[in-house]
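Handout, page 2. Input:
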Amino acid sequence: MILSDDMYVPTLRWRQGEYQALMQLSPPIKSKIVPLIFVPEVEFDFELRQPRKSVHEHVFPFPGRFRKKWRPRPAWITLDEKIAVGRMSGRSHVFDYIFDNLRLYQACGIPAAPLDADADTLAAAQRAIAQDQYGFGIIVRLEDLMTRNPKRRVVKVLTAVSAEPEDTDLIVDLRAPNFEPYAEFAKALVVAMRKMGDLNQFRNLVLVSTAIPESFANVAKGTDELPRHDWLFYQAFLADLPNGMRRPNYGDYTIVHPNFVARDMRLIKAAGKVVYTTSHSWATRKGGAFRGNEVQMHTHCEEIVKDTVFQFQGAGFSYGDAFIARCAAKLEGPSNLTRWKSVAINHHMTMVTNDLAKLTVASLRP
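Output:
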């Protein structure tokens, strides 16, 4: 699996809003996407003060759901650290269970792990790599790059999983850094990435980051805009990339902050909102508490369709855009917050894929 310059790597936590958004992408968009899928931690029952499920119950549907939502297309699969130390019934490792079952479906799941993955997780990844021959994804975070010799740690992990660099995808995960000023951060990142040695030795090179806020509590009601600093920085980074240095593929966390954790919804009055990705920003439409005033979503969608801030792409652009258009016309009900998350992520992934296509075409012009 070799990524072309216009291919996109969305990082998704495998919950309903995310995998439904992935499934609803159009076939042309799916062909330009290879997701990095995190198997997230078990949801917490705040009333009972305990996890809602065991690790086995939580992970058990994953292979079948992956097959249904993504079919045989490739994806990297990695584990939340709490899931990585858990076990399935019979004490098998979660990676063994996932990849043994994906193999039955002939699905293309590629194990991915961070530099600090535990020995059991790396051993399970090694078993999957040996049987499937799909390669390996190694996740190097910004703090890893800032250490004296991150290359040595990468070599150690590759040795543990018996993977060669040419069969390995290097995923540089910046998470949510301070991007500004772009030029200074770009210079620092180039210096840090050079610690990895020859970047061309890896099968693929991916740069993942986000500028989405951890909470939308401080986003203004009505219409507001948040700069897509991750995307704007990526363009600046490519423009200043030194001659001979490998160009990384673009990845992000869609519209969900990597530090997102579920909160006790009994104590939170979540607002009715729509996050709509434009070519340079996240344009937001936000109201009051969703519960008890669900009909506000019709007004939000009406504003998105007509307000030039949103640069509405039209009902035919994506599943998310079609739903917004139908809700604006009151042909769809206000649904629920999970659906609106799915709508926003589906539109976002479609928008990013189109942005990358335009950027790639522009870079090929003489």
